Amino acid sequence: MKIEVLGPGCHNCKKLEQDVQKALNELNIEAEVIKVTDIMKFSSYGILMTPGLVVNGRVYSSGKLPVMATLKKWIEEESKK
Amino acid sequence: MTLKDLETARMDIHKSESNPVRKLIGLKLLLAALLWSVTYHYLHPLASWLAYDIAGLSSSSHTGSAVEFFIFEVPKVLMLLAAVVFGVGIIRSFFTPEKTRQILANQRESVGNVLASCLGIVTPFCSCSAVPLFIGFVETGIPLGVTLSFLIAAPMINEVAVVLLFGMFGFKVTAIYIGTGLLIAIFSGWIIGRLHLERLVEPWVYEVGGSRLSLVNERMGWSDRIDAGLLAVKEIVSKVWPFVVGGIAVGAGIHGYVPENMMASIMTKSSWWSVPLAVLLGVPMYSNAAGIIPIMQALLEKGVPLGTALAFMMAVIGLSLPETIILRRVLKLKLIITFVFIVAVGITIVGYLFNFIL
Questions:
Q1: Cβ contact (<8 Å) for B135 and A61?
Q2: Domain limits at B190?
Q3: Three-class SS string for B75-122?
Q4: Same structural domain, B69 and B90
Q5: pLDDT tens digits, residue range A1-12?
């Protein structure tokens, strides 16, 4: 599984990256977490607001910090695909 | 309503998500609103009672009125802030930047400037997203001037500034602030559009080739929206409360200790260059709206007229050195200077206007 966290380095972007790591640890799921800071890449996903969360190429959230429970649900669902 | 109440309310909402009883959420909201209004209504008598009867301070003493002012204003402003941020959080859950982009994509320029400025108020925005937002808007074919109208209005008219202004200076000042802020955003964007400065946008911006955002989970229920509102309250109030308390403490000091006729006599003293100077000082500075309020209070105490202080505030939160540095990635320096110059002139005019009316 490939998880991309899109953000130029604002507070919430760092927080999202930590949350993703935490969720992965708690779910005991392995994934490649990539921090994307290239703004050209944001546009290619159509993301206008950071932080953005892209799992396996699919955009899950944009411009907000998802709650932990939701984040876990998404990762779990994606890992079963 | 304290943060703890909000937290429990939030947890309750989560619980009710499993059984889809919509009414329960409505009932809880109604109850919370009722509790809020009752508390708000009795804040003043409660503050007087605490200051004069319990602490035994005299209501005619400076200390007494300063303490009462502080005990009353802190919960009042925090409650207003929580309520407004909650409301704005819910409204914003209907306006994503993506939707705003869609609305603006089909507009003519002048109408677009007006719409972009208004949408700038309700669309969630963070200055760290200014660049992706700019690219996303421009590549959809939204005119440069309309995009800039949005980028001016979004930081300048924010909910924290509105609540603090309302709490400290009343309805009239708040309304003029919102109105003039909108006018600055509309006209600055419109003028830049008329100047046809598209060639001063970095060429790579037009070559990005973006796509439309398609979220996996686009549906949002009411409980999600309420969640979004509560989350906004938690995030903003926890960040902003020390500034609010600090600002009110300064305010209480002035309220209790500075004789009113002395304040009045200083207020009338103003030089023609004070407004441009305030704007010039404010432009490179950056602070959030809550941080600027204590400074504004201090400025007013020093005798700066309200229009000058407001121009300073608009310049600080509306324009900033960090934001222009971020925007340098997509705009040529000449365009950035033009942009800052036009907005700064707008703010200066508003400052004079304020000093003139009030």
A1: no
A2: 97-208+258-357
A3: HHHHHHHHHHHHHHHHHHCCCCHHHHHHHHHCCCHHHHHHHHHHHHHH
A4: yes
A5: 899 999 877 778
